[in-house]
Amino acid sequence: MNDRSEVRQVAWHEQIAVAAAYAAVWEVARYFSFSHWMLPAGIRLACLLLVPRRYWIALVAGEALPVMTNGLMLIPQFGWWYGLFASFPVIIPCIPVMLWLRRRASLFLPDGSVNMLLFGTASLVCALLAAIVNDVMLAGALWPTEPGQAVPYVRLLQAFFAYLLGSYLGALTLAPSLVALRLLVQQKDLRTIWQGPLARDLALAAGFLAIGAFGAAHLNGAALMACRIAMVLPVLFVALRHGWHGAALCGTLASVALATTSAIVRDPAMIQAQAVFAAVLSTILMVASRRIVATMPSPATLPLRD
């Protein structure tokens, strides 16, 4: 699979439809996000991986609309610097990176597996760019305005790593599952998937994760940390049975369950658990991507057109 297909003119109503759909999904994802679990990063990455390049201008417009609206509303509260960078769509600096990557590598390898080198590089670089933009935005709100005040370098550094983790984990939460759904839908109809063994195993994993999330509400300390880390076990189970696409879909469920175990923003224990979860999930996805699933569709049947 590659991006070498023909380029055609796109009607303006198609661009508007793509922009409106992306803006709506992006805003919903933002509503459920926090600094160390940023779901819009997953929506952004999935679109830049799967959406034809002729619609990328529409993606920029779709992200700019909610971002600029929210940013401008925050200027009276946090100042013009914060509002200016809060109004900056992170997709803009991500586009040159993704354009360079998609021109040099395919998302799907000839054997039908996912190119995790491309996926991992894109996830990390886009997360880094998002962390930089968000940290500069925060600096505008925290920077001292009077002589003698200390510059909050430590706080900005902590926030940077929280934003980096949030964007990377947000990408891992949604982008792999959206890519996997693209593969599965192309392979067979949704009804077959819904009634198949993958759906049953995902339901079993969801039950385990729901029990874990409920139990986490009654735990603390080391027991709570162990419960949070154990949420990666269903992902491993589904990955062993269904390969990369099963791991991707179960990873979304596990990440959501993990996020529900804390109501405190920037809880250090939660951030540690999410960092471990992100590392383990990345490893599972990388290993599972090399396991060739016999029923996976050929990349030739999944063109990414420009």
Count, helices: 12
User: Which class of secondary structure composition applies to the elements?
Assistant: mainly alpha
Query: How many whole angstroms does the radius of gyration measure?
Result: 20 Å
What's the number of structural domains?
2
| Fraction of residues in β-strands | under 5%
Biggest β-sheet description = none
How many strands in all? 0
- End-to-end C-alpha gap: 12 Å
The secondary-structure element order is: HHHHHHHHHHHH
Q: Which stretches are poorly predicted, pLDDT < 50 over at least 5 residues?
A: 1-7, 292-305
What is the quaternary state of this protein? single chain
State mean pLDDT (0 to 100 scale). Answer: 85
- Rough outline: globular
Q: Considering DSSP H and I runs of 4 or more, what fraction of the residues is helical? A: over 70%
